[in-house]
Design goal:
The chain is of the alpha+beta class. Helix content is about 35%, strand content about 20%. The protein is elongated, with a radius of gyration of 28 Å.
């Protein structure tokens, strides 16, 4: 009986005609039994299902295909845009003369940039501030070390989110290169 519960994943193409199935929202799937009582999954496009003369199967169902999310390349692009915007915001706040007013945001941004591997933590400076290093520019940044209980990270993140769009890289309105013109 265990063999009935183990069968392969949904196929990418129709068993009969080879039509690509991931683009379809739904398609029929049948489960047949081999002579050895093994479950055999067969995915069909709706057209081939309608043309099927003998519908001899153990079971069937309608497989639902969900639209794919962004591709790995699109996710990488989004990460690089996010990183660029975070880095630009960090630099803008760090360059301000009233930097102490933005201490919680700088603290959080420095740690985010460290998490995203744009900066490296180097330790505590003699004056008690945290030292971060940015490899590409070879610059060292000193950030006030804040007691965790004294900072509202929700407020700091809300403020960062509000400011981040100002520093996000501009998207080309014409679309990606190589498109139809």
């Amino acid at each position: 009986m265990e063999g009935y519960l183990q069968f392969k994943r949904a196929a990418r193409a129709c068993l009969v005609c080879g039509t690509s199935l991931p683009e379809l929202e739904r398609h029929p799937t049948i489960l047949t039994l081999s002579p050895l009582d093994e479950a055999v999954r067969q995915d069909l496009c709706p057209t081939c299902w309608d043309r099927l003369d003998q519908k001899e199967y153990f079971s069937y169902w309608i497989t639902r295909r969900y639209q794919q999310g962004p591709s790995a390349e699109d996710r990488r692009l989004a990460r690089s845009e996010r990183n660029e915007a975070l880095w630009a915001l960090f630099n803008a706040l760090y360059a301000r003369t009233d930097r102490a007013e933005y201490a919680s945001q700088l603290f959080l941004l420095a740690h985010l940039l460290m998490k995203y591997r744009l900066m490296a933590y180097k330790g505590v400076a003699a004056d008690g501030r945290l030292t971060f290093f940015h490899g590409p520019t070879q610059e060292t940044y000193l950030i006030d070390d804040l007691p965790l209980a004294s900072v509202s990270f929700v407020d700091a993140m809300t403020s960062i989110d509000g400011q981040l769009t100002q520093y996000a890289p501009a998207r080309d309105a014409a679309g990606p290169p190589g498109g139809d013109e």
